[in-house]
């Protein structure tokens, strides 16, 4: 029996043929086999080549993570699967749009803090801001946490996108 | 190549013909009428009309497993597609190549809840290897050829092509199969040579080795079976197999230990538990085989050869995992083995065989014979003795009779045993037998059945009659869903909740009603004569073999127990099943 049973968080990049139903295949695989999805992003990355890239953040024991990768590779429209936590350590970024409503001192404090996070104000009214903030997921968590007492009303997050360091393609 | 314009329906038929298809199993309906019209106007493809779409898929499975070719199914939209789902799931679990064409409502009606509309690709996504909805006849030729490629390459499996009715009428260009290359799907066929060397190293130093083989050997083809036989002979090691792998190695060979697993032999399971090197070729550590995973072959190094990378380390951690086709990997193994001129540890081998023989001496398949009532094991034994010298193919339904067939019918060749292993589909055996008989018109094809299972796809006897297929349905009739009853006896205090087959039909009269032949045997003394009579009839036969109602399948590894905790038929005690064991199926 495997002794390694601690839960690990992995970011996996999947290059797929951009055909109908491909996202359903990936999501169905995770739900059907009881794997976790912490975040999932998808978009076409090569229009001419008709390929999309899916970035999945998941967690499980090392045996389960290996199984997830093998199961993904087995899907017919999948070109390639790369574990950006193990095989090719990567950089992760997430973007969030954060709406904060308030006036007076709270409003000033929100603006001051957003500066510390290098968040941009992309919409404003007399009683609200929408910030655009980019960074690793824990930075977004921290920013959202700070905004909560200052009048946080809405958050929209992209989920994690990731790419391997260095000169090579995935 | 000259470009030829054809209708979608004509493209389908042309693609099937170019893929070498001679037989399809199907059932017409509104959304496939253009395809049926195209079939009507040609003579190359024979269409076998089934009585239910589930039967079509199982028949195609029987055809595929007995020939090594893919099976082809044609059904209509909506209920036609949903009825096929059980068969597709069965084929997925047992890795059977099936191409299932489903009709769909015309493209402009998709999503409107039209008559006989269902989301076929959505419903079949988890029960196929891959599926396609064809939106235009221009895509049809590529999808048709890709479907055959995907279904038959790598780990085989079922695929669905969903074709809206308007696409069947549209005209487009047809392209031959040689011009289609799949964009992404490239299964790994050759095993990693370093890993194969590591495996040989482990095998060379084994003291208590065991081959554990599975359906992957059969799926790989006759060459894999032959190479496996050669390698097993070269090493002199004992060999066992899963339910799906029966026939790949001849049961008459002294190195054969019988089937492994829940109802496997004492010698196979003990050898599995005690081995120090396990060589898994094309088996997948299914729960019916492993029993309690944490007590599974605890002191062994494990080698696992599988064409599906996701099978390796899925359930049991292995020491050497080799992704590749069994025949290719075996070829490499044999080459390296010969080149190294390996000397095995002879005294260790002798001691291991002595141990194996002592387990074999338990004769774990023994049962108490009776002169009064036909024991089901005796019925299978007699069936085996009276049919083994013919070209005989056996299919089964699911339950006790299936296990007795696996234990007491002995297979010498691959592709002669069709059973629903992974999904455990009651109703599989009769339509599968229809498919086998279509592929092998002169062979003796017998569905070893139970009286409960047979009623799940009984309607296919009508198909057998229509196409003059002399399949033999050999029912071990104990008037119970026997395996359910056995578990209720062992696990639920003998409370036989809804497992009695009440209001059974008179199977002899039923056969006659369908235009088949009915035979009944009630006493051991008349069994041989009746079986011979059944073999001689050149028509479909329903054989109602009335057997001991309360017989159980032994030996047995109770749920949640280890391989060395088997119970035998002569054990006086009922098995102790742990609370965790009761949770398992």
Biggest β-sheet of chain A, characterized?
5 strands, antiparallel
Proportion of strand residues of chain B = 15-25%
The secondary-structure element order of chain A is EHEEHEEHEEHEE
Give the quaternary arrangement of the chains.
heterodimer
| Cα radius of gyration of chain A in angstroms | 19 Å
Gap from first CA to last CA of chain B: 56 Å
- Our count of helices of chain A gives 4
State mean pLDDT of chain B (0 to 100 scale).
96
User: Which consecutive residue ranges of chain B, at least 5 long each, have pLDDT under 50?
Assistant: none
Overall average residue pLDDT of chain A:
95
The shape of chain A, in one word, is elongated
| Sheet with most strands: strand arrangement of chain B | 3-2-4-5-7-6
CA-based shape of chain B: globular
- What class, by secondary structure content of chain B? alpha/beta
Low-confidence runs of at least 5 consecutive residues of chain A: none
Radius of gyration of chain B: 24 Å
Please describe what this structure looks like.
The complex is a heterodimer of chains A (170) and B (585). By secondary structure, chain A is of the alpha+beta class. Chain A is built from four helices and nine strands, in the order E-H-E-E-H-E-E-H-E-E-H-E-E. Chain A has helices at residues 22-32, 62-74, 104-116, 137-147; strands at residues 8-17, 39-46, 51-60, 78-83, 90-101, 120-125, 128-135, 152-157, 161-164. In chain A, strands 5, 6, 7, 8 and 9 form a five-stranded antiparallel beta sheet that branches. A four-stranded antiparallel beta sheet of chain A has the order 2-3-1-4, with helices on one face. In chain A, a hairpin with a 2-residue loop joins strand 6 and strand 7 (128-135). The mean pLDDT of chain A is 95. Chain B is α/β, with parallel strands linked by helices. Chain B contains 22 helices and 20 strands. In chain B, the strands form four sheets. Chain B has a six-stranded parallel beta sheet, sandwiched between helices. In chain B, strands 11-10-9-12-13-14 form a six-stranded parallel beta sheet, with helices on both faces. A six-stranded parallel beta sheet of chain B has the order 16-15-17-18-20-19, with helices on both faces. In chain B, helix 3 (53-67) runs parallel beside helix 4 (79-93). Chain B is globular and about 70 Å long. Chain A binds chain B through residues 1-2, 17, 20-21, 24-25, 28, 32, 63, 66-67, 70-71, 73-74, 76-79, and chain B through 121-122, 125-126, 129-131, 133, 150, 183-185, 293-294, 308-310, 312-314, 317.
